[in-house]
């Protein structure tokens, strides 16, 4: 399922907020007069890379955590159908804009001795 239209409509507002954040970060980094004339565009991009990774990492970490919380605490085993408790394991993924850590949900069926990852079918929407 794609991102709902109502969320897509917020994108322009969020882009404006991100631009303002970038402007504020520049002022905090270089002061009111901006960077020295010896600082190149490549230097600025290099400086910005970890900030973009941190912003993306925070966004993805909280978004995936929110998704995980929507899953039921007990889910049926895909093999035998018995109820299995959900647990979470910290996992670092590398996205397009850098790494982020999230709590990956996982279930283990004691009867089948099978581990499985819950799907959106077990969500409490």
Helices, strands, pairings?
Blueprint: H1 5-8, H2 11-30, H3 41-69, E1 74-76, E2 83-95, E3 98-109, E4 114-116
Antiparallel strand pairs: 1-2, 2-3, 3-4
Radius of gyration equals 21 Å
General form:
elongated
> How far apart are the termini?
14 Å
Number of strands: 4
The chain-level structural class is alpha+beta
Please summarize the sheet with the most strands: 4 strands, antiparallel
Could you report the average pLDDT, rounded to the nearest whole number?
91
Commentary on this structure:
- The mean pLDDT is 91.
- Strands 1-2-3-4 form a 4-stranded antiparallel beta sheet.
- A hairpin with a 6-residue loop joins strand 1 (74-76) and strand 2 (83-95).
- It has 3 helices and 4 strands.
- The radius of gyration is 21 Å and the shape is elongated.
- With 125 residues, it is of the alpha+beta class.
């Amino acid at each position: 399922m794609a991102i709902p239209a109502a969320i897509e409509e917020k994108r322009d507002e969020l882009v404006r907020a991100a631009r303002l954040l970038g402007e504020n970060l520049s002022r905090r980094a270089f002061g009111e007069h901006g960077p020295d004339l010896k600082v190149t565009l490549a230097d600025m991009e290099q400086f910005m890379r970890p900030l973009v990774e941190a912003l993306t990492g925070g966004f993805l970490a909280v978004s995936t955590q929110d998704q995980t919380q929507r899953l039921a605490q007990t889910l049926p085993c895909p093999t035998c159908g018995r109820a299995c408790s959900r647990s979470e394991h910290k996992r670092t993924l590398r996205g397009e804009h850098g790494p982020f850590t999230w709590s990956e949900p996982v279930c283990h069926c004691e009867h089948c001795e099978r581990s499985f990852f819950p799907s959106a079918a077990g969500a409490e929407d």
